[in-house]
Specification:
Largest sheet: 6 strands, parallel
Number of helices: 10
Helix content: 25-40%
CATH superfamily of the largest domain: TPP-binding domain
CATH class of the largest domain: Alpha Beta
Distance between the termini: 27 Å
Shape: elongated
CATH topology of the largest domain: Rossmann fold
Oligomer: single chain
Bound molecules: 2'-O-acetyl adenosine-5-diphosphoribose
Order of helices and strands: HEHHHHHEHEEEEHEHEEH
Radius of gyration: 18 Å
Number of domains: 2
Strand content: 15-25%
Length: 251
């Protein structure tokens, strides 16, 4: 087995050699910013069955309950979350001319806040609420959630502008993700359990098109040893710092 130093050096070498890397990120990259993940210890789906709280049919039937149990807490956390070293590392890779695009399954907006300019929000965004009646969008920070569910001026219920189970991936996000993935030379997969489709198939598309797949996650995933060329067992922030330190010291 390769030592951690050797894995970091190999990742830095692959990244230094490209100007067309793409990142695929998941909830794990935002854990160090205080946002809970979905699976694993402390994950949201440990407390709730996603089909009973995050399915579009449940939201339509009982929006007050979905707001009370899920959305209000998420709003409280996301209204104040700030990027950590994982997000900042990806922004630095873009500034260095290495990383072109971030495809994220996260809805927290932290990649944009960190400075990445091309972020594909595969599962939509929590920064906005959308009226279920007139489609008007309102910034989440400005929404008063003392009476649930919050409503638009037209009387319609406001809902996160994010993808619920049973809903389609925004078509442009899906199309652009497939295009950028197929064209990239290195795919950096950070903090995703890689079990939710179609996001989880992006590393496979990258690999089939000749890219090197580098995975950063404290735990192995279905990609590990199967699709990933390099698996770096570590947390996003610390690992990105080490990769950048190796990369920048070589320049
Ligand atoms: P998950 O919660 O499924 O997985 C989080 C991953 O992060 C796990 O593989 C952890 O091992 C890893 N992890 C934990 N701490 C970490 C750290 N400090 N640094 C890096 N990685 C860490 O999150 P996603 O894969 O993003 O979809 O979940 C995919 C989708 O499932 C979500 O977008 C959401 C959910 O249902 C929808 O809501 C539509």
């Amino acid at each position: 087995m390769r030592s951690m130093d050797a894995l970091i050096a190999a990742a830095a070498e692959h990244l230094a050699a490209t100007r067309n890397a793409v990142a695929l990120t998941g909830a794990g990259i935002s854990i160090e910013s205080g946002i809970p993940a979905f699976r694993g210890p402390g994950g949201l789906w440990e407390r709730f069955d996603p089909m009973e709280i995050a399915h579009i049919d449940v939201l339509r039937r009982n929006p007050a309950m979905v707001w009370k149990v899920l959305v209000k807490d998420l709003k409280a956390v996301m209204d104040h979350a700030v990027p950590n070293d994982g997000h900042k590392g990806l922004a630095r890779l873009e500034a260095l001319g290495i990383l072109r695009t971030v495809i994220t399954q996260n809805i927290d907006g932290l990649h944009q806040m960190a400075g990445n300019t091309d972020v594909i929000e595969f599962h939509g965004s929590f920064a906005w609420q959308r009226c279920m009646q007139c489609e008007r969008r309102v910034e989440t920070r400005t929404v008063d959630d003392t009476v649930l569910p919050p409503r638009c001026g037209c009387g319609g219920v406001l809902r996160p502008d994010a993808v619920f189970f049973g809903e389609m991936i925004p078509p442009l996000a899906l199309w652009r993700s497939q295009e950028t993935t197929a064209a990239c030379e290195v795919m950096l997969v950070v903090g995703t359990s890689a079990v939710v489709q179609p996001a989880a198939s992006m590393p496979l598309i990258a690999k089939e098109n000749g890219a090197v797949v580098i995975e950063i996650n404290p735990e192995p995933t279905p990609l590990t040893g199967a699709v990933s060329d390099l698996f770096i067992p570590g947390r996003a922030g610390e690992t990105m710092n080490r990769i950048l330190a190796a990369l920048e010291s070589d320049r």
